[in-house]
Amino acid sequence: MNAIFIYIVAVAVMFTCCKEAPKNNLSVDAKAIFPKGQLGATENFTGNAWNYGLVANDTAFTTLVGNVYFEPGARTNWHIHPAGQILVITDGVGYHQIRGQPVESIRKGSVVKCPPGVEHWHGASADTGLHQLYIVPNTEKGIVVWNEKVTDEQYKGH
Amino acid sequence: MNAIFIYIVAVAVMFTCCKEAPKNNLSVDAKAIFPKGQLGATENFTGNAWNYGLVANDTAFTTLVGNVYFEPGARTNWHIHPAGQILVITDGVGYHQIRGQPVESIRKGSVVKCPPGVEHWHGASADTGLHQLYIVPNTEKGIVVWNEKVTDEQYKGH
User: Fold this and answer.
1) Is the interface score ipTM higher than 0.90?
2) pLDDT one-digit tens code per residue, A37-81
3) Which among B43, B68, B90, B95 counts the fewest CB atoms within 10 Å?
4) Where in this chain does the record put each Cupin type-2 domain (chains A, B) (predicted)?
């Protein structure tokens, strides 16, 4: 009887230990669709933003596609895409702002359209990273013009 | 002692039942990024393919973006995009074939570029569904020209 009791306790403890771990920021990387890629240049980003190119610019598609993973708190500088940009958020939580408009919250499933020639920034929330696909169409018109950093006051202005 | 024994058995059974369910096709839907959307027309698809539009065609971006979830076994007809198509696979397993070339396996993280004017088909594997983002650039050149169905022999030819 004692042997059975000890066995049952052992089974109970085993299943307790094998429960799914609580979700945290580390789990975001584990379920990412793409590798992290290259760390973005410090002159164009605040914090760590990792770029993984998916479709290089060419004359057949004139479309640039890639993935950026923004670590919590990371964001782009203000910048302009001469032909506009489409963002598809595949996981996490973050922000997007067009110059002169309120900051908008974005998260898994959000789609952002920033019109041609309009200044904007985007990045992760303070607590949770952001996985975003970017699509830059009509690259014959230009890809990106980088401007100044998004200040902490602008970032926190949401 | 009997009461404790029954309690321990109950705990053991509880944790056994609460373990993460085995992955199956249903779990693919649970972790999808987008809603399923509209069922594709039977004249253009074999099986169930669900389309969820993300960016409608317009003159500012001239780029069509959306998500298709192919249920296991589902696939497009043969078709042509006059300006080409980019596919980004966000989950699942499937196939892509350009006319005259071997069938290629695609899965989470795969990126497919089908050149302008080239005939192709794509869809899910027989056992696992496929979640794909599609990007059709330069829509002023046309979006899609649908052709005949992919036969079971062509589908199984991988």
Assistant:
1) no
2) 999 999 999 999 999 999 999 999 999 999 999 999 999 999 999
3) B43
4) 68-129
